[in-house]
Structures are given as C-alpha cells and as structure tokens.
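Exercise 7 asks you to align residues with tokens for two separate proteins.
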Amino acid sequence: MNSRALVLKIFVILVAVIILARLFHLQILDDRYKIFANNNVLRHEVQYPPRGEVYDRNGEFLIQSRETYDLMVVPRDTKGLDTALLCQVLGIDMEIFHREYKKAENYSQRRPSVLFKQLPKETKLKFDEFNFPGFYTQYRTVRSYPRKIAGNLLGYVGEVNQKNIEADPYYRSGDYIGVSGIESAYEKYLRGEKGVKIQLVDVHGIPKGSYADGMYDSLAVPGASIVCTIDSRLQALAEELLEGKVGSVVAIEPATGEILVMASSPTYDPDKLVGRQLGNNYAELLRDPYRPLINRAVQSWYPPGSTFKLVNALISLQEGTNSASDSYPCNHGYPYGRGVKCHGHHSPVNLTAALQTSCNAYFCYTFRNLVDNSKYGSVKDGFDVWYDYVESFGFGRKLDSDFRSEINGTLPTRERYDRIYRGSWSSMTILSLAIGQGEIGATPLQVANLVATVANRGYYYIPHVVKSIEGRDSIDNRFYERHYSKVEKKHFDVVANAMWKAVNEWGTATGAFVKGWDVCGKTGTAQNPQGNDHSTFACFAPLDDPKIAISVYIENGGFGATIAVPLAKLLLEQYLTGEVQSQDVYDRVRGININYSKAYGQ
C-alpha cells in the first residue's frame, strides 16, 4: 500500500509541474495568446495576389493586372474623423460617403468592411498622407486590356456570390472570380494564393507595426501567367471585318487544335466590365438586343448549309454507296417529292464538280443512296449509320474544348423523327439533311473543327485556347490526343482536292484565292426562314501541310461567296503572308453593313 501511495504522489507532482511550467510559458515567456485574446489591437489584413497575366501566342499582352485599392473601415475606431477632409481626399460626395458608411455600421462595429472599392493608386497616395482613424487601404488588382479585343473569348472577372463561396473554401465575401471565357476556365491558375499580414493597431485603429516582426505573416502567391493560342493581330482583323455584321469567325491550327481566332460580333470593349461601373455596363450590354455578351462561336448554333456537304460526301465514299466518278443530273434542283432547288450550273456533275458548284441535287441523290441502301435493312437503320458517322466529326455534342459555355449544337436522332412523324418517315421526309438544313445545327467552332479534320485527312485535336501555363510542363492531356472520324484517309484526299479546285480552278469559292498558298474551300448559303440567308464559308490552306483552317458565319449575309469568302480571304492573307494584300477586298468587306432591324426587332 505504501508503494502505491508513493507512485500516486509522484504522478500528481509530475502533472502539477507540467501544468505550472505550461502556465509559466504562456503567461511569462509567450505573449502570443494574450494578444490574440485582445483582438482590438490586432488587424488581420488579407494580402490579395495579382491575377496571372495572359499573352497571345506571340508574347503580346491580352490581359494585364493593374494596381488598385479598396478602402476599409472599422466603424468603432472612427471617432474624431474629419469626414469633410476624407471626402475631399477621396473625391467622393458627402451624401454617398454617409450612405456607404451606414452600411458598414450595420454590418459590424468591430469588424473591417469595404467602404469603397478599386480606388486608383493616386488616391491611395493622397490618403496615406493623413492618419484617418479607423480607415486603411487594402491592395487589390483589376484587369486591363491593352488590345481591346476578344472580350467574349477572354471573359471578365466579377465579385463572388454565395454559390461560389459554398463551392470553394478559398473564397470569401468581397473576393473576385473569373465569370466567363478564359478567366473562368482557368480560374484556379489565374487567381493565385492569398496571404495575410497581421498588424498591431492602437485604440484609434492607427497601425503601429507588424505583430511579432511578421513571424505569422504569409506572402500572397501571384497567379500563373498564361500563354494563349490566339494570334492577336489576326483576332483584331477578324473583329474589324465583322463590324456592322452579326456572326462569328473561328480559325484553328489543324496540326495542334490551337484556336488562332475566335471572334464574335457584335462584341464589346473588355474594359467596360472592369472597375466601379461594371454593374451598370453589364446591365447595358444585357439589354442590347444584339446580345454582345454571347460568344456566338460556341454559344449559338446555325444550319451549316452547304459546308455540311463535305460530311455527306465523305460518308458516301466510305460506305461505297457512291463513287467519286458517279454523276447525277441537275436541272435547277432535285425534282422528286417537294423538290430541292439549286442554282444554275452545268449538268450532270460528279463529286468534284458537285463540291465545286455546290450542287444540291447531287447531294440529294447521294444522301438517299446511303439512307435507302438495302444493305442496312431499313431506312431507319441506314439513318443510324449516317448518324454515327456525323457524330464522329464532332457534331451534335460538345467538343470538350476549354470553353465551359460551349453548347452541343443539334443532331437529330431516329427517336426524334419517330416522335415528330409518329414512326412513319423516309429519306424524302428528312432530305434537307443532305444539304445541311433541317434539324441539324452546328456551332461555328464545330464547322471550323470539321474543316480542320479534312485538312488533317481524317482526325482532329480538341480545339483549345491555352497554349501553356506558367509552372506547368503541359496543358491538359486531352488536347494532345487525336480524335479520328470513321472515314479513311484516302477519301479525304478526294474531297480536299475538290475543295482546292473550288478555289483555284472554277467554282463558288474562287474569291478566296491567295497566290502560292493552295487554298481549299467550300461555300455555304444556309437557308433562314426568319430573313435573308446566312453566308458561310469553310476553308484551309495550304492543301498539303495545312497551317490554318477557318470557319466564317455571317447572319443574313446572303450567298457564301458574297461576304464569308472575301472575309476569309483577308484572314488567310494576313496569317499566311503577314499582311492584307487585297486592299479593294478589304474596303468592300469593311463597307458592308447589314440591316438587322427586322431580325433583331429594331
């Protein structure tokens, strides 16, 4: 018993010594907890990192970060404030000041809150000359756009909402986040990492220095810089040529899938969605009936029109339901059923001549030869074969690009036609698909991807807009993978050569000729029940070792050769030769302003 009592006494003494030693350390040697308990003398200031900057493929700035400051206030500490002087320094009306100050008081007397956002550096320097009790500035950055281009593509930054905060613990009220475009898609790289600075302040809220010599501070880590795939000179030219028109231009480097141009019209000055007028400017853009905030390249779908004949030609060759030498008559159209009209040209035509002249009748014959072929068992089974081929070219689904707002487009299914026609339909019922009309709809990006697939003779890389990210060896692996269509290379050679003849010998696309560059193209005039036809053109160059593939789509522009072809020609000249060579064509395209009053209710 004595032995046990001794052990217990020793244990109690040891515990008491440990507790006393810990109390001595906390109360005498380490004043950290005492100060933390007295929060009125410590101020935790978030250190916001500058967002990563964005360059074009040639190293030119597309987005920069500009220094700015938020004015913070702790209402409890503002006793003795010279309000008139502060308003004079800030250049702010007294009534506005009191209104915002009241909001801060209602939020909290003790906790800091933002009184005014995004003050310029010059105002911050004036503010620093005075010790306004309870006020301090917090470093932030805002975006600036040296080239004033690609607003829809680059996107913009806005204040986080509750949904953002709940989805990611990184964000707090008052933080900023990429809302659209590249800013949104690459937010986790561009935003950086926040730091913190702990300041000792007196009872009036005046800073007295860093707490513990900055031992507990952490530095903000700037966001990563991004090199974009865009050619800013080509992008600027595309936007210039689109002025006065509604539509889109997409250009892709076939060998990589890198997007060289993504222009949507009408667009907006990206600087409008920066700073204290962001809300007002956004509301104004939202009210615009022409919807400049919509990136038509990925968020609008249209009937592809005659550019889609490339797909039907390739499918018929692969399936053997037509050969390149088969000819069909055309006397201003396809004469059966309700008929399909066509413009005048020589007759009969084989595949090459049909692509050169964009013959509707030829493709009605070939479409029916495919869908009605007895080897499939039924028309519906033949249609399923056609559907699988079309989907392999990237239609009817997202391409999985780095645009989160990308839409699927439309590709009708067998089930959809069964619902529409109650199970009773034939190749004549859906004949408009032969010429890229009817229930099929494609985004300009999907059409650009189609022509890049033809340029590559059967495969494509997922189109993307970021070339490299600072601190990373590569971008997402999915952008390096080849995606093959279901058509063999030999058939693409036939179609590519026909596209070359359409531009370089005779055909509907001769207006895209660029000397020495073997341009290959296919025009399209997409029917539009709401007004004038849409003008479209898909091309690539050169025939061998292609460097660029372009899709142009102009709403209500008429024939493909009228606007889309000359516009693409100018982009080809700029990219392939380094300058616009055809000044007369440039003047003509720039001079075209389409009246959209009926289409857009103006």
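Second protein for Exercise 7:
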Amino acid sequence: MKKKISLFLVLSILVTTVLSGCGAKGKISLFSEGEPGFIIVRSAEASNEEREAANELRQTIADELDVKVTYKPDTVKHEDGQIEIVLGQTNRPHTEEVYKELANENENNGLDYIIRQKGDYIYIMGMTLLSLQDAINYFCDTFLKDTNGKVAYDYKYLYNYKAEGGEFAIAGNKDLSSYRIVTPRYNMSYLVGREVTPLSTQLLYATGCTVPVVMDNEEATDYEIIVDSCNREGIPEAADADSYFIQVSGNKVYLGGGSNEATAMAVRKFTEMAKDGKALAADAKITGSYSEDVKAYENEYTLTLADEFDTIDTDLWKIYDGAFSNGTTQEGDPRRAYFTSSSKNLYVQDGSLYLRTTREPDRYNSVELRSENSVWFKYGFIEISAKICSTKGQLAAFWLLGNAAQDYHSEIDIFESTLDWAKATPLSWVGGAVSGEGSNTYYCGWDGDQKTDSYLHFEGSDLEDVYHTFGVEWTEDYITWLYDGREFLTINTTVDERAVATFNGLQQIILTQYGGINVINAGFPDETTDWDKGYMAVDYLRLYQLPGQELVRR
C-alpha cells in the first residue's frame, strides 16, 4: 500500500477538549467480546484520497486488533442501534451541526478537526484531508488500542491549530487566506505535481491558512502562487533548461524553470522558505541551478531514459512490421490487419512522434513500437506527453509488459483509449497473465482494496486538442496512475504472493496505435470512421528512477 507521511500534530499546540454528559449517560462500548460493534461509513461521493483514508482506518483496526470491520458508503440505510463511525461529511444526521462546531465560522482553519459522539454516530471530521487523517490517528490512539475501548456519550474533542508563526510572508502578507496555488490544467509533469501538495501543506502549517490548489482554467485573482507554464500573464522565462526562478511581482509569486526538473526544484525551494519562515518582498527574485541544488538531496528521482522524438530512435524502438497473427477484421471485410513501419504511418512532425493508422484496399495498417530489444526496467516513474485522436475502430495505448516466459508476468496499461470505451477517455488497468490460466490480477475499478469489474476513466473530452501527460509511479508496494501531473488511482501490489510475483519483474515499454480490428471495444471501422483522426502524437517519453531501481540495456 502506498504509505502516507504521518501527519499527527504535536499535542503541545493549543488543543480544546470538551467532555460532556459522561456521568449520567455512561459510555458506548466499541467492542463486544473482542469483536467490533460498529461499522465505518463514508460519503458515497468521497474523493479517492478520502476513500483511502477510510480504508486505512479499516486496515489499522484489522492489523492491530486482528478483527474485521464493515466499511460502507452512506447510501446504505442506517439501522437503529448500529454504531457508526462516520468519516467526513455524509448524509448522516448531525453532520451539519458537527461541521458548524468544527468550523466555528472560520472555514480557513485547515488543520482543525473534531471527534463528536451523537446518538448512534461517532463523527470524525477535519477541515481538510490533512486534518481528517490527524483526527483518524487521534481516534485510533485514544480508543482502538484496547478492545475494551469506550466512548462517552456526547463526547467532543475539538482540535484548534495555532500557526507556528515566524516571519514568512509574501509581499508583506502574513495572512494567506486570499491566496491560491495555480497549476496547469493540462500537460503538467508529475515531477512538478508531486511538489505541489507539500507546498500547500507547509503553507498551512506556517500560516494556519488553507491555500487551495486550483487549475489555470479558473479566473485569475490578485493573490496567486503560479506554478509552471500556466494560463497567466507575466510568467518569466528561465535562462536555460537547468535554471529555475522564484519571482514575486506585487501579490503574485511565480515558480518555474527551464525544464520539469528545474520547475520542481523551484516549488521545493519555495516550500522550504515557508518552513524556514523567510519573508519575500514584493519585488523578490531568486534564481538557482537544478543540477547544483539537487546534490543536497538524497533518494531523488533522476532521469534515466528519455526520448524527445526529434527523430525516430531505431536503437531504442523495435518497430513491428507484418501481418497480425490474431488481427481478425470484420466478417465480409477483404482487408487484413498489419503492423507497418511506413513513413505514412510513423513519422516525426513539429517535434512529436506520430503513430497513425490507415486503410488501404487490401489492408488496415497499425503501428507498434517496443523497447524489447533495448531497454527493460523495474520500478520508477514513467510518463509521456501526448495527444490522442479517436474514431470508430481505433485504439491508442501506452503500456508496459513483463516477460511472458515467466510463470507470472504483468501488463501495466498506463492508458488504453477508444471512441466506444468511455468516449475516448483513457483507461487504466493492470493485467497479470498466469501460465495455463488466462486471467487478470487487477482491474482499475477499486473501492479501497476491493476489486470491482467496473472501469475508471480519466476525465477529459479534449484529448485530441491539447497535450496531456500520462504515466505511472511503480514501486515494489504500489502502482499509482498519473494524469496531467496529478495522482489518479493507487493500487496495492502486495496483497498476495501472486501479486508480489507479478509486479516485481522487469518491463518493456510499448506505444501502440491499432486500427481496423476490434481491440478492447474499439469496434470495427464503418462509414462513421474518420481516418484523419486515427493517430496518437507523442511529444516526449521520460523515465525517472530512484537509486537502486533497475534499468537494463540490451
């Protein structure tokens, strides 16, 4: 399971605790004969992060107490007398009342949380995901270490955070309640995106103010911390690919660089300034070198493989050429399905690699590039920047594949995109084929660690209009799918021996554009097929790895 950084706050900071009604009404027993007498409930509309927090609570109880707890969305009807531990805002009674107690007319106090008992319900609520996790930690430490744990009727624990203070300010503004962190809506690298949450968190600790993260399609305001190449005026230019800048102009801050690596360093350095309490003047300008500053950090992602697609690198890519062995076309269609290396189907234009399908009188042409003869890797963060056009009978895919000669081998599909499958939104799933047993280990429909046969899809109907980044972060414990620099889905790859065996082998890299055959619900071409749209354009491919992660060149 992907591990979260511990967020439990030092209790020496001001805390308000209220206990009422304990004597007359007694206490609620959470356990009966060692077994839990409660269920965990969260909103059916909870975010992936909130679901993960709820699932971690369930897993903590299972691990520490060796008991199983029922975990349900709030669409399930409440049964009178059934104790519910309710996480976050749900449809349960008293939710609004408890939230008002927590917010206390100040919705910007992002580290405050409350644990409140009302009737059959024990509410655990935080102003942010950060404080909700703190509340869960406090609840576990207080009530779940002993299976005889009891909660007093009308129990109330309200945590009020007081900012750490210091001199941190932006253009004289110590109150950052009006500020927002603005990020690119499209095509942000995860190398940059992974630095944004720590920045937001540190600003919260430094000032006590929640500084929300928004995308640059929102209307500009006077108070913004602008990350990377956003849809904003006045963004400075870096001196070169290695340089980064932190620049203040009035009440706005610009964080950028000449490369993804440099921009990520700018965000990190600004986060450290907030932590150290360093104020920035209204005309402050700080510059630096990524290659020099990264030396101060250990266990960093470094670039181990890149293709910028200025040319077609035949040393890296094996380009398939010839008839499909299983390329069945529609009955009555005289054409056969082929892979091709033709320059009509595979070419470089305006700095991007184009993989294009075509229809000819006797054949359908598709394109597939594999690194199987050159590069295999195990673990790391890999992403491409791409545009995907979809039409009937077409499929685009970016995927990783293990060694099929092994008893277990994995397939990690970073995306598969068709017109008929969720309106051309890319699909992510992980397949594990076992010798003699054609089966899938995981699909991408998840609720906690429970597999479902539904599919999750990246949002967006503009895939052919603008470039987006797609990738995965793959470790020995988890796989996280990434879309435009943001985490989309995480699955645990250690749940059983088969999963461990499947997802801990070397993988090759594959780019595919299929046309003419019904692959993964692409459908067969028909009169509606627009062959001009049968392509994928890839601006770059980059693999970043931590020290010790394998890269094998053949």
